[in-house]
UniProtKB/TrEMBL annotation:
Domain of life according to the entry: Bacteria
Ribonucleoprotein in keyword set: no
UniProt catalytic activity: (2R)-3-phosphoglycerate + ATP = (2R)-3-phospho-glyceroyl phosphate + ADP
Pathway(s) per entry: Carbohydrate degradation; glycolysis; pyruvate from D-glyceraldehyde 3-phosphate: step 2/5
Biological source species: Glycomyces paridis
SUPFAM superfamilies cross-referenced by the UniProt entry: Phosphoglycerate kinase
Residues that bind (2R)-3-phosphoglycerate: 37, 119, 156
Protein name in UniProt: Phosphoglycerate kinase
UniProt-listed Enzyme Commission number(s): 2.7.2.3
Length: 398
């Protein structure tokens, strides 16, 4: 695929460049609680603006129902993007309507305009190819060139991600180029020992990535809510912990396959339990073979965290996706923090797989530069590691 570096060499002064960004940031009302995605795409936008392009940025935010919804407006994002860029960012109160057209026409060289939420338009996410293509045509009218730097959306066959690339000369932004470079190392021949850490709520969300990586890793570590389905597959009682009964047999098959391959599939040996799912629930640490029937595990225990940290310390390559527990509750955040800190302390090439893992890094106050790479796309990074064809990347490669 062609990259932003090639485009800048060609020259963009006075040319209109439509940039698909992933500005889907968490909001508390109108306040941005994590600007990581804004900061991640800012270098691409800034480079284009400084090279004299007339930059029109588009993005989605949240899941509005194909119509304007003030709760999902990108207005606060425009303000923060301007602060990060150190230049004014104009904001259009619609996506492809009169205000967007008026402000786009008024742009001078080096100006940046952010359009309102793409998902305020049904055509953005439509399953109907004709409806999606029609909206893509309206978006493409804002650019002579198209740059996609929304890695967090490349696994979606949406108008702004897939169809626009068919209509304009297209390039991968610096963020997408970096993501592909990093993730391709994990699916190719990573330096050994290679450790993959998977957490999060459901094992069903991670089956495909386990299936694709199991013969590539030296150690697969499982924590988070998904660990209880694996523990049940080993014959443990898990109390009222999260359990996907329909996946127990699948987990048994992975345990058997790992043994056949000589891969260490490492599960927790203890867990921090609670009587209810609540931040103020009294924690009780127990062995995984002694979980009380009336309690649920909400974090890995300290012995497990130490064990996991030891494996990380001996690794050359580490991929982590999914927290080890309910890190939003202070009493159940220690496991996630220990694992994350072990990555920071390690000499390994470490990749954090976006989503809740990236949020945990920031929530728990860990240094972002302590990791080799923090992906901006949780779902996209997982699907890449599953070996799937991602529509957004496919469109850029054509």
């Amino acid at each position: 695929m062609k990259t932003l570096d090639e485009l800048l060499q060609e020259g963009v002064n006075g040319r209109r460049v439509l940039v698909r960004a992933d500005l889907n940031v968490p909001l508390d009302g109108k306040n941005i609680t994590d600007d990581g995605r804004i900061r991640a795409v800012a270098p691409t936008v800034k480079a284009l603006a400084e090279a004299g392009a007339r930059v029109v940025v588009c993005s989605h935010l949240g899941r509005p129902k194909g119509a304007p919804d003030p709760a999902f407006s990108l207005a606060p994002v425009a303000k923060r993007l301007g602060e990060v860029l150190g230049r004014e960012v104009a904001f259009a109160t619609d996506t492809v309507g009169t205000d967007a057209e008026t402000k786009a026409v008024a742009q001078g060289d080096g100006d940046v305009l952010l359009l309102e939420n793409l998902r305020f338009n049904k055509g953005e996410t439509s399953k109907d190819d004709t409806e999606r293509a029609e909206f893509a045509g309206q978006l493409a009218a804002f650019g002579d060139l198209y740059v996609d730097d929304a890695f967090g959306a490349v696994h979606r066959k949406h108008a702004s991600v897939y169809d626009v690339a068919k209509l304009l000369p297209h390039y991968a932004g610096w963020l997408i180029a970096k993501e592909v470079e990093v993730l391709s190392k994990l699916t190719g021949k990573p330096e050994q020992p290679y450790v993959v850490i998977l957490g999060g709520a459901k094992v069903s969300d991670k089956l495909a990535v386990i299936d694709n990586l199991l013969d590539k890793v030296d150690t697969l570590i499982v924590g988070g809510g998904m660990m209880f389905t694996f523990l049940a597959a080993q014959g443990h009682e898990v109390g009222s912990s999260l359990l996907e009964k329909d996946q127990v047999e699948v987990c048994k098959s992975y345990l058997a396959r790992a043994a056949e391959l000589g891969v260490e599939l490492l599960l927790p040996v203890d867990t921090v339990t609670a009587a209810e799912f609540a931040a103020d629930a009294e924690p009780l640490t127990v062995s995984v073979d002694a979980i009380p029937a009336e309690r649920m595990g909400l974090d890995i225990g300290p012995a497990s965290a130490k064990l996991f940290a030891e494996r990380i310390a001996g690794a050359e390559t580490v991929f982590w996706n999914g927290p080890m527990g309910v890190f939003e509750f202070p009493d159940y955040a220690a496991g996630t923090k220990t694992v994350a800190q072990a990555l920071v302390d390690s000499d390994a090439f470490s990749v954090v797989g976006g989503g809740d893992s990236a949020a945990a890094v920031r929530t728990l106050g860990l240094p972002e530069d302590g990791f080799g790479h923090i992906s901006t796309g949780g779902g996209a990074s997982l699907e890449y590691l599953e070996g799937k064809t991602l529509p957004g990347l496919d469109a850029l490669e054509k």
